[in-house]
């Protein structure tokens, strides 16, 4: 199959690897948004959070924690942004679930965590919460 991250997992294309266990691979992003940008992927192909099993997602989350702490300590980062996109509407480009780990420094200029804040309408928030709870 043509999945680029499956090819990295299979060793068919190279990557700068950090952590490699039975369920998860962590490697350096080839086009880093910042110094130390890491990706963590499940070894079993799953396109997004809707498809991945809870066991595989749990393994990914454990690896994200380890990599976030390691890169913070290694590079002396002041913070770490953890980002994970699902679907093209969310700007996901590679359709194999991956978590971005981005070391951060004050005033580093990365805009990925900046959005316009608008005061919420409490009635609308309650209505949305009611609808979501029906699906939990
Ligand atoms: P997305 O927008 O799907 O969340 O981000 C995909 C990420 O994968 C991008 O940050 C991009 O730089 C990275 N990427 C795409 N192809 C490769 C590759 O072949 N090797 C590595 N190491 N990273 C890749
Ligand atoms: Zn894949």
The secondary-structure class comes to alpha+beta
Strand percent estimate: 15-25%
Can you give the mean pLDDT?
97
Helix run count: 3
> How helical, in percent, are the residues?
25-40%
What is the rounded distance between the termini?
34 Å
Could you give a short account of the major beta sheet? 5 strands, antiparallel
Task: Report the count of strand segments.
Answer: 5
Q: Please state how the strands of the largest beta sheet are arranged side by side.
A: 1-2-3-5-4
Gyration radius, to the nearest Å? Answer: 17 Å
Describe the structure.
The protein is an alpha+beta fold and 136 residues long. Helix content is 29%, strand content 18%. It has helices at 4-9, 54-75, 122-133, and strands spanning 17-20, 24-28, 38-42, 79-83, 99-104. A five-stranded antiparallel beta sheet has the order 1-2-3-5-4, covered by helices on one side. The mean pLDDT is 97. Guanosine-5'-monophosphate binds at residues 4, 15, 27-31, 39, 85, 91-94.
Write the layout of secondary structure elements.
Elements (H helix, E strand, L loop, with lengths): L3 H6 L7 E4 L3 E5 L9 E5 L11 H22 L3 E5 L15 E6 L17 H12 L3
Antiparallel strand pairs: 1-2, 2-3, 3-5, 4-5
């Amino acid at each position: 199959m043509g999945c680029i991250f499956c090819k990295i997992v299979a060793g068919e294309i190279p990557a700068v690897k950090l952590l490699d266990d039975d369920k998860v691979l962590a490697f350096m992003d080839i086009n880093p948004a910042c110094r130390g940008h890491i990706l963590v992927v499940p070894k079993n192909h799953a396109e997004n959070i809707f498809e991945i099993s809870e066991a595989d997602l749990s393994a990914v989350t454990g690896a994200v924690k380890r990599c976030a702490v390691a890169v913070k300590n290694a590079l002396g980062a002041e913070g770490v942004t953890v980002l994970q996109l699902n679907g093209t509407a969310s700007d996901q480009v590679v359709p194999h679930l991956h978590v971005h780990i981005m070391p951060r420094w004050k005033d580093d200029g990365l805009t990925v965590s900046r959005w316009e804040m608008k005061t919420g309408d409490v009635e609308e928030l309650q209505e949305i919460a009611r609808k979501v709870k029906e699906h939990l």
